[in-house]
Amino acid sequence: GEWERALQLHRVMSQRTVESGTITYNALISACLNGGECEKALQLFSVMEQSLVECSTITSSAAISACGAIGEWEKALHLLHVMVTSGVESNTITFDAAITALDRGGEWEKALQLFGTVSQSEAKCNTMTFNAAISA
């Protein structure tokens, strides 16, 4: 699949000592997530952090989505907390992913609590945010 091709290209990059940056990891993690390889996406996120590559909103949101897809709501909340405390900007996609992760984990009260926090903050809520909260 596409995610396998992305990982192969990354291996070629590494063999040629081409440095992987934030954009590279964003693409890799997104390819894995889109291919249903959520655990692989989280492994790449860990490698990225260990390599001290700067995390972006896109990277963190994708990792939170991956957590939700495999039922790791605690890890999703942890990543959201790390994101906020380290100054990585969060957006609607970030909060949608976290609320969905909580919902999938059966933590509807926490999902509604997070929705309440988001809806009262300066973050913008969209249809997906409301849908995630409603389904919780």
Could you characterize the architecture of this molecule?
With 136 residues, this protein is mostly helical. 74% of the residues lie in helices and 0% in strands. It is built from 8 helices and no strands. The protein has helices at 2-15, 22-34, 38-50, 57-69, 73-85, 92-104, 108-120, 127-135. Helix 1 runs antiparallel to helix 2 (22-34), helix 5 (73-85) runs antiparallel to helix 6 and helix 6 (92-104) packs antiparallel against helix 7. The longest helix is centred in the first third of the chain and has 14 residues, at 2-15. The protein starts with a helix and ends with a helix.
Shape: elongated
**Low-confidence parts lasting 5 or more residues at pLDDT below 50?**
none
**Sequence of secondary-structure elements:** HHHHHHHH
Query: What's the number of helices?
Result: 8
Which assembly state applies to the chains in this document? single chain
Mean pLDDT: 86
Radius of gyration: 15 Å
Annotation keywords:
136 residues; mainly alpha; elongated; 74% helix
Question: Strands, helices and their partners?
Answer:
Layout: H1 2-15, H2 22-34, H3 38-50, H4 57-69, H5 73-85, H6 92-104, H7 108-120, H8 127-135
Helix pairs in contact: 1-2, 2-3, 2-4, 3-4, 4-5, 4-6, 5-6, 6-7, 6-8, 7-8
Short characterization:
The protein is mainly alpha-helical and 136 residues long.
